[in-house]
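Notes from hallway chat w/ T.B., transcribed later so I don't forget. T.B. wanted the structure written out for a chain they're using in a teaching module, and asked if we could keep both sequence and structure tokens in one place. Agreed to drop them here.
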Amino acid sequence: MKLTRLSAVVFPLLLALWVLGGCAGSSPSVEGVWAKMLPEPQADEAPAIKILTDGHFAFGQQVAQGHQAWSGGGTYVQDEEKYTETITYHSVPSLVGQTIEFTCVFRDGLWYHEAEFTVAGEHFLIAEVWKRLE
């Protein structure tokens, strides 16, 4: 998802967490259902939901009428250092077939992940905070 705004508080926090060390050590499994907490949804939008199971992921977000809906999915790999998605379908067609490597940190029940990359001349910065749903 292309992010055009990023909270001045969130980005330094994510950067600090990244510097402190990826998914190393005691990282829990990402498998499960997650709700995106940051960036916050716009008015009249529901949080994005991401479902990860058996090496596959899917996400989507119900948005206000007239706004672009975000959705996508594919496969993922999680190891001690990173979380990597390979996209097989996406609402942004240029992302289909891309492999995106995220730095990530798990802290206080939240999953912080970040990736910055360019596809077909378009720059993407993904900096998100997710909370596992019970």
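Follow-up for T.B.: Residues 2 and 122 are 9 Å apart (CA to CA). Might be a good example for the class.
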